[in-house]
Amino acid sequence: MKQQHGFYRIFGGLTALVLVFAVGLCGCGSETKRQDSSQEKNEEETDYPSLSEEELEVLAYDNDIAAQLELANRFDYGTAEHGQDFEKAQIWYRKAADAGNAEAMTALGYLYLNGLTDAAQPDTEQAGVWFEKAMEQGDPNAFVGMARNCLAQCESAEEAEKEALYAQAFSLISQAYEKGTPQGKYYMAYCLEKGIGTSADVEKAVELYQQTVEETELSLYDSYLPNAAYTRLGLIYAQGAGGRQDYELALESWRKAADDGYAVAQYYLGMLYENGLGAEQDYGQAYAWYQKAADQNYAPALSRIGYLYYNGYGVDADMEQTLYYQKLAAMQGDAAAQVNLGYLFENGIGVERNLQTALAYYSMAAEQEQEGAKEAVQRVSRSLNEEE
Fold first, then answer.
1. Any idea where the domains of the chain sit in the sequence?
2. How far apart are CA 353 and CA 272, in angstroms?
3. Cα–Cα–Cα angle for 246, 252, 257, nearest 5°?
4. Average pLDDT over all residues of the chain
5. Which burial class, exposed, middle or buried, applies to 62 when counting CB atoms under 10 A from its CB (0-12, 13-18, 19+)?
6. Which of 208, 108, 114, 128 has the alpha carbon at shortest distance from 168?
């Protein structure tokens, strides 16, 4: 996810001065080691998860890296006490990262990659800087982060450049996989499923996903992996990849992750019930599962709820609710919702007809290559020209 950066050192006239300071600081260096050792011992003995936020802050401001990480994690993932606060998470990750903690460096990389920093938009360049720093410290999860950064760059890259990025991503994931990390295993499965940087091998991908769902000793950062693997398995079964189409197996896989609160699986489970695949068609069940995912602000689920309200499937038809949910999804960049809103404004359904607004929504969807969006842009543009 990041370009490599070189590090330069100036020697020559400074050599003698460096040697003098090196000798003069020998005693201090020993004391520093004793202090570092003492801090490590204190960190090992402290039960950080049991501490209050105020207690953690006292330790964190005293340069306790473990306390800084615990605070950052709480703000990153949210707690019962307060929701997620990525701005504060970034502050504490940065303090730990500046102290040389590779785990915090990797976490910072993901904040930049996912647009969760104060910039409020993805920044693959900054993400790459932090992933690279963490890789230099030997954090295997940083290799996965850098690989995901490469894949994010593929979205706007030319075809020739994409191949190089795919190859780089696969190489990085291979290194994490060889180190035996859960993330390395999951993303190796993803590469094999999709044929990213290597030949597709769905059978091997399924094997690795199944190994991932059986992982039990997982860190906070890796805790999503079993649910993510169940979700990928469900997609393989539903789409028939590798000749495995089986909607009942898809439902079973998604149900396991959905019951654990995984929004993506809840959305797909809703799709099965909506379309009667692997289970009897049940719009009520579809709505219920979409709503669970929507409660986590998952945009595709918000769009599907709007669709149910538009058609009166499982709920009373309600254009106000249709518009509400489609707009919520569109604001997050959901291309399907953007097309839906374009259609409503183009035809004056539930709203006053407005071709300029319709064109704006269609154009946003077209930028994401949403099916039918480019044709809609051309159609509405012609209508606007004819009205002038």
1. 50-138
2. 34
3. 130
4. 88
5. exposed
6. 128
| Residue type present at position 305 | I
User: If DSSP states are collapsed to H, E and C, what string results for 99-146?
Assistant: CCCHHHHHHHHHHHHCCCCCCCCCCHHHHHHHHHHHHHCCCHHHHHHH
Residues 99, 65 contacting (CB under 8 angstroms): yes
pTM: 0.83
Range in 22-36, 51-65, 130-144, 355-369 the model is least confident about: 22-36
Total residue length of the chain: 388
Which of 347, 315, 309 has the alpha carbon at shortest distance from 328?
A: 309
Structure tokens at 240: 């028939």
CATH class of 50-138: mainly alpha
C-alpha pair distances (Å), 232 with each of 111, 112, 190, 334: 24, 25, 8, 20
| Stretch 222-228: mean pLDDT | 96
Q: Would you say residue 330 has pLDDT above 50? A: yes
pLDDT tens digits, one per residue of 12-50:
222 222 222 222 322 333 333 334 444 554 556 789 999
What is d(CA 221, CA 153) in angstroms, rounded to the nearest whole number?
A: 23
Instruction: Give Dmax over CA atoms of the chain in angstroms.
Output: 84
Residue of higher predicted confidence among 280 and 159: 280
